[in-house]
Amino acid sequence: MRTSRIATIAATAAPVGLPLLASPASAQGHEGGELTATLTQLNDSGASGTAWAKVTGNRVEIKLDTKGLLPGAPHAQHIHIGGTNSCPSNDQKGSGFEGALQTSDAVDQYGAVKVSLTRDPGKTDASAAPDVANFPTGATNSYSRTVTVDDAIAKQIAAGDGVVVVHGVDHDGSGKYDGSVKSDLDPKLPSEATDPAACGELNVAQMNMPQGGVETGGSDTAGTEYAGGFALGALALGSGGVGFAATRRIKTNR
Questions:
Q1: Integer Cα distance of 37 and 40 in angstroms
Q2: Shortest CA distance to 216 belongs to which of 78, 120, 133?
Q3: Which alpha helices (H) appear in 93-249, and where do they start and end?
Q4: CA distances from 178 to 34, 97, 139, 190, 238 (A)
Q5: Which of 71, 99, 119, 198 could join 166 in a cystine, given CB atoms 3.0 to 4.6 angstroms apart?
Q6: Which range is least confidently modeled, 51-60, 176-185, 207-216?
Q7: Dihedral sign (CA 161, 69, 125, 229)
């Protein structure tokens, strides 16, 4: 038997400003080698991927390769930080349709959006989380970008406290984001648009950063018809520059 209680999840992010420049001291403090992650499916999405990151000062170089996602649709992707800095299991039940895992169901595990992995030249802080038009689109993507983050986020990622989450799941197999179930983050959007599709924990590892990829984040251009509606709906993963707030059910272990 599962019990539940209603809780309000709120995460904050620093407002967008001029890029932060790393001082010599901070640059030295954040050089902790490289990090890797293996992305595995959530919500039986069939998605998978790999991620690599390297922190130098306040700059984070990241490469992300994903496959098995919904073709022709944008897929928001972020570095989450907080909670237990871990991924939920694929069979973890959520509060969505027929037990689908919605984004806020696992916030206490992977945390809140701190870095938005948009295509260049889009902003990359939490306020850019709803910029769906500037996220990679398509079933398979090869993404590469170097972003500037604040000192606290740089330290957390370098320490292995970041989790990469890719969003967007076609639960009903219709080939697009639809359905009567609404997003737990914004009722203007279908739940499929924001439900997590894949997740991977960034762990410190000794390996070379892979070569290749596209600095702007390689992807196809199909699916841009989603952009207008998502912008109005704000995707709510990080609207208003203050992260996101959502009411969700927190489920206890069986």
A1: 9
A2: 120
A3: 107-110, 151-158, 191-194, 227-233
A4: 38, 12, 17, 6, 21
A5: 198
A6: 207-216
A7: negative
